[in-house]
């Protein structure tokens, strides 16, 4: 369909509930339209679609699962679904254990030959080789974290919250909320193994959650869940150098809030972060010369507890998932200010937490 973008939405829910929704954004009329709903996976809290649009990958964020033999097994799962090129329907899923509880994030290398999963309660990041048929092979590499932070409720041990590959696909950066660190791993020269490379610390108690690269690949931004800040790093060949941190909340806000997602705009002019509690998207402008961040405003997500959100590839649209008000809301990006402007349309989706725009 011309004038349409494909949207995939992941949600919390039981295996027999709707946890994956396909929709379309009709750009000519700024409408969101549901086209299909799927279950057969529990708590599909993070989704990714490959570049060809032929396979959808999802984590099943659980502490245990039922394995292929019908037995109860510890940890969550990585699911992979083929997408029909004509109908865009999902085919039968393929499942792998993540060997850790509550997997909550996944990413692919730019060449889509490796997939990484972070296990929030499993203290680990898993790496899966991607086969020629686009299905993940069994997990072949596991990185276990050890450490803690000063927050007694949330940092009693490691909590890997995201795993992002560098733009060149040679490094894996794992944000660990429990350790206040970004752990960095490197691919060997043959591309078949990954080993520990470096680590960089955040402020004690910050709770790093998600990471986004600048389109240039020369900077990375980390959203810190526990102290509601965004930290800028310069980046070069597997080395992060910490720069400034800015609050995601306005000075006048005095309630409880925590951060969830961070995204850099495709044109490299803005960074966006979500606040759960303040229920907003915080916008930061990127200085063209120095790269420094400055606060550019806050916009309500028109719902409760915005989890993840996504920008369209052209940077013109933002779609936010409000987990606790069961809504997925469309915004148009104002090109000069970078601020999201409500586009007048939203979808009702139960407990949405992940959005992918193609």
From TrEMBL:
InterPro entries: Cycloisomerase_2 (IPR050282), Haem_d1_sf (IPR011048), Lactonase_7-beta_prop (IPR019405), WD40/YVTN_repeat-like_dom_sf (IPR015943). SUPFAM superfamilies: C-terminal (heme d1) domain of cytochrome cd1-nitrite reductase. Residues 130-167 are annotated as: Disordered. It holds the Pfam family Lactonase. Belongs to the cycloisomerase 2 family. This is Lactonase family protein.
